[in-house]
Amino acid sequence: MSTSDARSLPPRWSSPGLVPGILFVLFVAFFAWSLSRAGISIPDLIAGIPAMGTIASEMVPPATDRFMPMLNAVLTTFQMALVGAVIGIVLSLPIAVLAARNLSPHPLVYSGTRALVSFMRTVPDLAWALFFVASVGLGPFAGTLALIVDTIGFCGRFFAESMEEADPGPGEALAAMGARRIDIVACAVLPAATPGLTNAGLFSLEKAVRSSVVLGLVGAGGIGAELAVSMEMFRYDQAAMIVLMIFVLVLGVERFSAWARAKLLDGTAPKL
Fold it and tell me: Which of 153, 163, 208, 210 is the 20 to 30 A CA-CA neighbour of 146?
């Protein structure tokens, strides 16, 4: 065998060693334990197939008797998501400046802001919705507040990372000329970080739309409340119509997001 042939061969498999082997065995054991605690039961799944078929048959055809109230609830859901995402994105910008290692005025400010953003991100949006429902009452306002906090947690992290990855050259040049920190951020960092900011902002809008549907299940307004009522009243035909509306809404937002991302970042505009 020639040297070139030997170089083209894939690397020979070798034993990963004792520690990786032990970790793999522990993972398999923990996964098996998790399967039992997850309550997975093939017999129960098989026994539930007739009920699934009954529910599916009752969903056809989707009911249109409450079409306008449902459409209004879908509009409310989108408006909650839009307002929550936009306000969250705007508030995320100054927070991200404080959470960016290269822009934060002090290490304590950096650490504290990072911890705050991490807390907002790790607490589920459903928990925020329950908190605000208990604080301000039922309705879309509680859902919008939950989406604002969730968006800050999402965008705050990715905005800060985009600012940290920005080319430091223009900022250093402005600093050498005596520019203020706010001028450096506005004239050097933000333009360089625009692709990352745009991506994160559009993804946060998609995330807010999907989250706003679920928030309605706990009384935070929107189409989720209509879906919960329909399921509780066994109006599966109404639930089917609601699911179709949610599908159209989420798909439309995702297509718009893809179009806007291509238009703003690549200069092209694919068909919606």
Answer: 163
